[in-house]
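User: My instructor asked us to take a sequence, write out its structure as tokens, and then describe one feature of it. I'm not sure where to start. Here is the sequence I was given:
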Amino acid sequence: MIPGFKNFARKSGRESPPVKYWEIIADDLSKAGFSLGWVSVLDVQGRTIWIVDAHGYGKRFIVRADEMLTALVELQSAIHEFAVRLVS
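Assistant: Let's start with the prediction itself. The structure tokens for your sequence are:
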């Protein structure tokens, strides 16, 4: 098993392709009731920028980063900080 990847067995007994960390985070946010969307764009210097959007519970979060995983980790962190402020 490659570090950072999670494998799931198929009914046939073979393993499916590894699930990436960003897919796990996206799935967790979706299960928590957030609708997600993302897009990658190129800036004027040809670098890829990921823009990730989540909305739910009357709140919208938008982040951008150089990598998809980084964008989703920042999104997850922003949502967590918002939730902590609500309960404190």
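For the description part of your assignment, you could build on this observation: The chain has a mean pLDDT of 85. Try explaining in your own words what that tells you about the chain.
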